[in-house]
Amino acid sequence: MTDPDTPLLPLSGLQKAMIGIAMVAMGAGMSINFVVVAPLARKAGLTEIEVAGILTLSAAVYALLIPAWGRLADRFGRKRVMIFSLAAMGLTNMAFVFALNAALAGLVTGLTAFFTLVFVRIWFGLLSPGLQPAAMAAMTDATTPMTRAGGLGMLGACVSIGSILGPAGATVLAPFGALMPIWGTIVLNLAVAVILAIVLPATRKRPKTAKRPTPLAVRDPRVFPHLVFLFSYFIGIGIVQQTLSWFIEDRYKFVDTAGRSAGEAVVLHTGIAFACFAAGMIVVQFGYVQPRRPDPRKILPLGLAIVALGYVAADLFFPFWAVAISFLTVGGGAALAVPAANALGSLSVTREEQGAAAALLAAAPPSGFIFGPLIGATLYSFMPQLPLYVSAALIGSLAIYALLVTSKRPLTPS
After folding, report:
1. How far is CA 92 from CA 38, 88, 179, 189, 304, in A?
2. pTM of the predicted model as reported, rounded to 2 decimal places
3. Residue 405 in 3-state DSSP?
4. What was the pLDDT predicted at 375?
5. pLDDT tens for each residue of 88-142
6. Residues 145, 355: contact at Cβ < 8 Å?
7. What pLDDT sits at residue 211?
8. 94 burial level (CB within 10 Å; 0-12, 13-18, 19+)
């Protein structure tokens, strides 16, 4: 019999931290496309719908293949799959940069450019989904039932941090060239893959007597409402993230100067907006949520309402500094809403099932980003402000639901 208080395959603190950093690198490698690819692909002659279609298709393939890559991680080893996926993410992003450069230079145009970018990007969705299930499986084996939810929650938080820090890092690298932020994430992905190869222990077989926690069904009535809630939230986030660079470009109409191209200016200012989002999230998360540990039922509707108001304010006030402050506000609201929604989903099941619930809820962000970008691009083609207001309405509706329904439910963990 296996001692429930002893991890099946323990990892050191450094090894767990490196897996977390790998998830940060993954989040950065995925989200940087909304800052760089969206405006530059449009400059290459693609329409907003075509740009969103490229990213949406790869996101759909990515999400659909996560379970298959989880099985491959069980068969070939978590370490091997994590290293392979990080390397594949870096190399497929590199191929995408070369293809995008060719489109910008006019070497491929029209539908040829579109299908070239689709073909290259689809390999990202095929080869890189293994990191998340392999990391979660490794963390599951490295934790006990008492510490499992915290360990898996840490991985989810690292993805969120990476998805914010990636675009925010564009403010540092954009002055060196519009495509430099993507090159930064490529280097990060490949470097972390090398470090994982050195730091993580060799693949070890799980004890034959060990029993893996039973995964929860997607339609489990305890978790399903929380999954739908988070899925809807990330659709709203995806709508804005896909269109923000276009909104900034079309509103402020940057022009080429002696020291900077218009494309670099768009990437820089979009990165500043995301950096403000990151700053707001970090300040609220570590200045309030972590030390105070407020009731998630109370801060969920408040955080959602703040996000919705921030999106509306981004359009109501014209100066760019006002847009930056609006996204600082959005980040603060997200720091309240996302951890609260995840906590309520985890707490809806028994203690032994909380790790499985955390793994299931982690599927909400990539699933939401299958639909959000395409919806956002469609809305943007009608009116540049429409994505902000539709997202605000969606997230505002979630705030009302959280206030009237979710906040009245008792916390029911055991």
Report:
1. 17, 6, 15, 11, 35
2. 0.78
3. coil
4. 92
5. 999 999 999 899 888 888 888 888 888 998 898 899 989 988 888 888 878 877 8
6. yes
7. 58
8. middle
B/e letters for 198-216, b = 16+ CB within 10 Å, e = fewer, are: ebbeeeeeeeeeeeeeeeb
pLDDT in tens, 367-385: 888 888 889 989 998 999 9
Which two structure tokens, joined as six digits, stand for 102? 């060719």
Classify 146 in phi/psi space as left (phi over 0), alpha (psi -120 to 50) or beta: alpha
Look up residue 196 and give its amino acid: L
Contact 275, 163 (CB under 8 A): no
At 145, is the secondary structure helix, strand, or coil? coil
Q: How far apart are CA 257 and CA 262, in angstroms?
A: 8
Give the helix/strand (H/E) hosting 306.
helix 296-316
Alpha-carbon distances of 254 from 34, 98, 117, 265, 268, rounded to whole Å: 18, 25, 26, 7, 11
Question: What φ, ψ does residue 4 adopt, rounded to 5°?
Answer: -65, -20
> What pLDDT score does 414 carry?
46
The H or E element containing residue 230 is: helix 224-252
The per-residue pLDDT of the chain, averaged, comes to: 82
Q: Kind and range of the H or E element at 79?
A: helix 78-104
Lowest mean pLDDT among 6-10, 39-43, 99-103, 385-389: 6-10
Q: Cα(230)–Cα(279) distance, rounded to whole angstroms?
A: 22
pLDDT at 305: 96
Helices (H) and strands (E) counted in the chain, each on its own, are 15, 0
Question: Phi/psi of residue 181, each to 5°?
Answer: -60, -35
Task: Of 370, 157, 234, 402, give the one whose Cα is nearest residue 303.
Answer: 402
Select the more confidently predicted residue: 241 or 309.
Answer: 309
CA distance linking residue 210 with residue 290, whole number of Å:
34
